[in-house]
Give the backbone structure.
Amino acid sequence: MQAVKTNEIVGVKDGGVTTPLGFKAGGIHCGLRKTRLDLGYVLSDVPAVTAGVYTTNQFQAPPLKVTQESIAVEKKIQAVLVNSAVANACTGTQGLADAYEMQQVFAEELGVANHHVAVTSTGLIGVHLPMEKIKSGVKNILAEKHEGAVNFEEAILTTDTTVKHHAVQFEIDGKLISIGGAAKGSGMIHPNMATMLGFITTDANIAHDNLQAALRKVTDETFNMITVDGDTSTNDMVLTLANGKADNEPLNENHPDWDVFLQGLKTVCASLAKKIARDGEGATKLIEVHVKGATSGTAARAVGKAVISSNLVKTAIYGTDPNWGRIVCAIGYSGEKVEPEKVSVSLGEIPVVINGLPCPFSEEEASNYLKQENVHIYVELNQGEHEATAWGCDLSYDYVKINASYRT
Amino acid sequence: MQAVKTNEIVGVKDGGVTTPLGFKAGGIHCGLRKTRLDLGYVLSDVPAVTAGVYTTNQFQAPPLKVTQESIAVEKKIQAVLVNSAVANACTGTQGLADAYEMQQVFAEELGVANHHVAVTSTGLIGVHLPMEKIKSGVKNILAEKHEGAVNFEEAILTTDTTVKHHAVQFEIDGKLISIGGAAKGSGMIHPNMATMLGFITTDANIAHDNLQAALRKVTDETFNMITVDGDTSTNDMVLTLANGKADNEPLNENHPDWDVFLQGLKTVCASLAKKIARDGEGATKLIEVHVKGATSGTAARAVGKAVISSNLVKTAIYGTDPNWGRIVCAIGYSGEKVEPEKVSVSLGEIPVVINGLPCPFSEEEASNYLKQENVHIYVELNQGEHEATAWGCDLSYDYVKINASYRT
């Protein structure tokens, strides 16, 4: 056990889903893609308490149905199996049967109950899973040579340019707790890759309802605050598995360190969310919009998402144009009540709007600031005490290229 | 008077805001732009009953406040004065004073009450109106050589590539009624040009409340169904002036030909809306999304707008990619309840999804269809009797270019 100070949340270098005790992971090439890994798993030594959040898209893919139904049985799963390349969405009754079979073959291989296996797919919409390849992959995937968190991280990617992982550790009840995660997501690129998947593991001891509440709260503040292109896919899912191996007292709202756990979970999810935003299709920059002074958290998040979602803001930042009017305009149509004469906006440390009116600034200095790879927009609403951060990326020629001309 | 058959709505070649009796219009170059016309007016012989719809953006520009306040006095105005190049938005108390002065000088020039003049600005946000240029323009604008609907149409443009006008005629109570309109709008391009302005004139005899109700209903089905980039500007406005010169019986819901008037107004507004969509920044195609079988008009419009607003749908059509998964995905996140297994989608006459599942089609044939300048997407929800159409454009490299690199 590493020595960490109580309540201090420490990042773990190269950490991921196998940082917490009692988890392993791996990935294999089973032939769904030309050469890249395309089938991955995460496995807990014991059934782990599991929380999940899922896409609100009504064309929800069959694997999401199977996974939600399975978690509902005991609120626990032991393993997750993920394939890339084929989303198994809009595939009807055959698609549902395939998802069940994918679950079953991995459960048999592991010797666990079917409902202890979650299945997830990401890739082409409207195409059936090549089940022979999946089944052959499952037979070999547990071999030691395919083990490793990075293999899992690679196997779940679609148009992503890099793997995405993060892990933290902190001490609660004198026990070291770890939280680790992996994610994929870059854009719902053709032919309709699912936007985002997140898998979080922890060895914390926590009951299902508390884990679900924590995941919901943290997801609203992290994964739900990123946007690449505003399209909510059919396959989005974040699963969190807690196997209790850290042996702490059960975590809940009455535990004195409940907030430490929440903060640890948020650190991992925020890190993964930012990595997804930065890796947005065609992105050259990560944009962070920080909203303060809102009357509620909901209002702060709505204003942040309006700004980060604006194509005009995104293209202006791509072009390093300090075009504050577009930011103000987006604040004005966010749907939340604002008082225009109280709104101030800064680009990094450069104020551009004070109390609803433009203020003088050096265009050159502001444009130079926007040349950075990580751009911060600060919005002060001066109406209340609530705040939020939204993450996104610029809109470049390459976004259009990736999404318009992939076939040519 | 032209001979038109009762109730038949006939388009007027090259018609516009001066097609109805008792209206004139004009435009002048007053120096706000380098060489293009930049100040325009519409004038009725007599005060005209006026209805208006305005942006919901909370950073509403001062001229909109002045115009709404003025119309409220008698529900009538006689003239509209519009400048391009400077939006007079985010300009504080000075901006409000400038809008009042702009109104006053034109009212003096015309010899009418201040509150009978509406003022509108479109262009740069955060810049004050050059009032000397505006005042000098107003002094000369009524000269005969500056008269003409096309001069008005040109003076209100920003990044638009063409003027936009439409007019229709029909007979009610044995009287010829004309409705004509002009509009501008291309995108909220830098530095923050207002998205859209519409000016409709008619010689119909109609009370204010009925005209306002008609405009609201028709706007929801036309101007509110277009999207170029999803950004709602600070200066959007549609004004409709009815001067009663046609001398028909007052139009209201109990008039047997009320629906004819509504249809005439809708024809003009839909024509202008489509022209704005087709002239979207960087657009190469007009896209029309036709939604049928919805449980309500609101649901039909929400689904249509979700599809037409999707960057992924827009880029796919730019790339002539029959990527139906993106259309289905957008339907699924529209916020309206749909039954996925009932949804069918066609590209023109080519079915691509039937009852929620993909159907075989020729990729080549579908891709060829998408090469047309006017692309129709048909969505059948099979849930009810309501329908709607949404208009938009594709998302091209030029959209990014226009919005990212205008300075370079």
In short: Residues 188-194 of chain A have pLDDT under 50 and may be disordered. Chain A touches chain B through 63 residues (CB under 8 Å).
